[in-house]
Here is the input.
Amino acid sequence: MKYFISIIILILLGSTNSFAQRPPSIGSPQVHADNKVTFKYYSKTAKKVMVSGEFLDAPQAMTKDTSGIWSVTIGPVKPEIYPYSFLVDSVQIADPNNTHIFANERFKRSIVEILGKTPLVHSLQNVPHGKISYRYYQSKTLGTTRQLLIYTPPGFKQNDTKKYPVLYLIHGGSDTEETWTKVGRANLIADNLISQGKAVPMIIVMPYGNVRPAPMSDFTKDVVKDIIPFVESNYPVLTDSKHRAVAGFSVGGGQTLNIGLTNTDKFAYICSYAPYTATEEFQKNFSNYAPDANKINSQLKLLTISVGTDDFLYESVKKNIAMFEDKKIRVKSYIVHGGHNWINCKQYLATTLQEIFKN
Here is the structure.
């Protein structure tokens, strides 16, 4: 009997000790009414903790209290969605107390949203909402089953007689198929603009654009030969080029130009956001580009290229715009302030959604 009592005591002591060692429950980030933001991180052993984000010119040092909680208050911060991370003894980590994670395969960042008094175009508003579905398709091009996200607009019914135009929307280089919804808020931007009558109800397809170690040009084939047929077999969509658009950001912006301009019979709308074009596919397609400009201009309803003046790709994008203009291809350029970030990217998308499928 004494043996069993001793065992129970040891178990209880162990449980109590484990509970005592559990990190304290802290809330981070905390957005205050004046748009200041408090960030917190727990570590008794860290020597230096900093917060880094697009709302800062440089990483900001955090201070530790006697319980091991590091904290700092920043701001006020301009209303927007911002990625941020902690540097714990120079190691980048996402905020462990924040469930909103930046969908990316390389950077470890979290997301904080500053709402402000006036809703922004990407804000969650009291309007009818569409639906995001996670779907799987068989890519014969890549020899595997792949995932993509599909946005269907408010009021969509799978078996309805109404048919919709389709935007194929591609993420950046190390992003994933979830980045356009988790960071770019493509679904909320579409909801808001559709509710205001500024955008046509449409289906938005967000595929996974990274196909390495396969040649990156295989993604173009995947879109044309596998993704489009999957969408058109499973959704009530219009299948002519005038009701099909392609858009993308950064590496996805370069892929957009590759996909769209080599298939102008399939896409009447091509919208490239800060395109990264230093790729073998782009060089193959456009180094000795000799297009039939009259034919392309007659096929395309809209070709746009967007970039920020502080974007590290600004000069190369300007050269590409000049190249297309020199080839007599009609291109509409949007040059804005700011850098290579999702703050600008959301604005590029909001502009695009108000222009496509309207003529």
Observations:
- The longest helix spans residues 2-21.
